[in-house]
Design a protein that fits this description.
480 residues, alpha+beta, 3-stranded antiparallel sheet
Length: 480
């Protein structure tokens, strides 16, 4: 859109340049005088001036609309009302609200079916509902309690744990329950399962409390109780993150379901994505529909629940580089569910290219073939922060000063991502912007709570800085 070829208005190489109302009026008067061949009265109260002013105001509205339309077509400048319509053309959608979910270990009778209305409650009052009806079963358990009714010479006691641990003992004369338990526990090796004796019963626990294994006991045992990890979903949207072993109240009592406990980290939900967050994610998200690219793997993983940071490295050479096999890639993911991450990598990774990593997950491909997928988790580096503030007496400090500053630091720190150095001075701006009444402030940081610096802490590849309110102290210099 432009008035004529001699102007610099409309869509230009520098962007959209809108003609303003005074310029529009000037153009209209000049053109009118050129057409009629004489000078007209430009005083505001003249008839010609009034008519041309009305026309100019309508033209100004059209220019404003054209400018709005121009900027509404870019995800970088589109406002709340138009950005969703703009990004949809590149197959990117705003992230909607998501529920927190976790795998609640439900204890009870082997074979008991938890119905669709099963509900548990945390110590904070939040309620969580079962995702789908599910079984408490030896085929999916992280805990099993076995009892021995009696011990007789020649009785064979044993169990198989996840096909990998096999324990068996044949009782001899004089054996009792304690001896049998001891003989069996000696055969549990490795860190995958641990065993103990409690109240005269043999208790077997799997270290991983999210994904259940299979326990096959001999018939000489009585299965007293089984604990199976079952998916529960928060009743409310948002970033709920219950502490471990705090969701223990069963709201829907059933004979056969004796106890419940959240014994692994939750996959934290989120609120609807804000326009600012959407803009920040857009650059990576546009690669989500592609395949066999670093960016496409990263974009797909970032769309998974609770995943907040992803880094993908490639080794295109014929030699091993930084621990990566030749012609392979290494994905480092912070947050998210192992199985969902592995499935996403399988779907997006180039065919025939190896993955690297210390975490191994077997997933089924589109042909029904089991595939081993590898990836890594970043090493979390706890950051300790000391903040000292001096009051600015012309403004009021908030009563909740300490918590406000801690919240700002945690929010800013969590946005850093993997491999990003922690720079002390970069906390100043967000704190000043969010908290009134601060005249001067000092921020020092440390990763060992011993040596502090006002400069920066280097975070290496494969590391991510972690921030916790317990590691932040806020002190205030109070004038007498």
């Amino acid at each position: 859109m432009a008035i004529d070829s001699n102007t610099q208005y409309g869509v230009t190489p520098q962007g959209f340049v809108r003609m303003r109302l005074p310029e529009i009026k000037q153009k209209l008067f000049d053109r009118f005088e050129s057409e009629v061949g004489q000078v007209v009265n430009r005083k505001p109260n003249s008839v010609i001036a009034i008519i041309l002013s009305l026309v100019a105001e309508e033209s100004d509205r059209q220019w404003q609309l054209a400018e709005y339309d121009y900027y509404a077509r870019s995800p970088i400048t589109a406002d709340e009302g138009s950005i969703d319509n703009t990004i949809i053309y590149s197959n990117v959608l705003r992230r909607v609200e998501e529920y927190t979910y976790f795998y609640e270990v439900c204890y009870g009778r082997n074979g008991f079916l938890l119905p669709a209305n099963s509900q548990v409650k945390g110590s904070d009052g939040e309620k969580y509902n079962i995702a789908d009806p599910d079984l408490i079963t030896l085929d999916n358990c992280v805990s099993v309690t076995l009892a021995i009714p009696s011990v007789a010479e020649g009785d064979v006691f044993g169990f198989i744990l996840n096909k990998s641990i096999r324990a068996s003992y044949t009782a001899v004369a004089g054996d009792n329950m304690e001896i049998v338990y001891s003989k069996l526990l000696q055969q549990i090796t490795g860190a995958e399962w641990i065993g103990s004796v409690l109240d005269g019963k043999l208790v077997l626990n799997q270290e991983d409390r999210r994904y259940g294994g299979t326990v096959v006991p001999t018939e000489t045992f009585t299965v007293f109780e089984v604990g199976s990890p079952i998916k529960f979903v928060a009743e409310n949207y948002g970033p709920l993150d219950p502490l471990l072993k705090t969701v223990t109240t069963i709201n829907t009592k059933y004979d056969g379901w004796t106890a419940a406990s959240n014994e692994s980290a939750a996959y934290v939900g989120r609120n609807a994505e804000t326009t600012t967050e959407l803009r920040q994610r857009y650059a990576a998200a546009v690669f989500g529909t592609s395949r066999a690219m670093k960016e496409s793997i990263k974009a797909a993983l970032l769309d998974l629940p609770d995943v907040d940071s992803v880094t993908v490295y490639e080794n295109r050479s014929d030699e091993a580089v930084d621990g990566m096999k030749p012609h392979s890639f290494d994905v480092i993911v912070h947050g998210g569910d192992d199985i969902q991450i592995a499935q996403t990598i399988l779907e997006k990774a180039p065919i025939g290219i190896d993955s690297n990593g210390s975490i191994e997950v077997t997933v089924i491909d589109s042909e029904g073939t089991p595939e081993k997928i590898y990836f890594n988790r970043p090493v979390e580096i706890p950051i300790y922060i000391h903040v000292t503030i001096w009051e600015y007496e012309e403004e009021n400090l908030p009563g909740d000063l300490v918590n406000k500053i801690k919240d700002v630091i945690i929010a800013s720190g969590n946005n850093l991502g993997m491999g990003k150095d922690v720079i002390a001075q970069r906390f100043l701006g967000p704190i000043y912007a969010a908290v009134s009444g601060i005249g001067y402030m000092e921020v020092v940081i440390s990763k060992d709570d011993v040596t502090y610096t006002e400069k920066s802490i280097v975070i290496d590849r494969g590391e991510i800085a972690s921030f916790d309110a317990n590691n932040i102290t806020v002190s205030m210099e109070i004038k007498s």
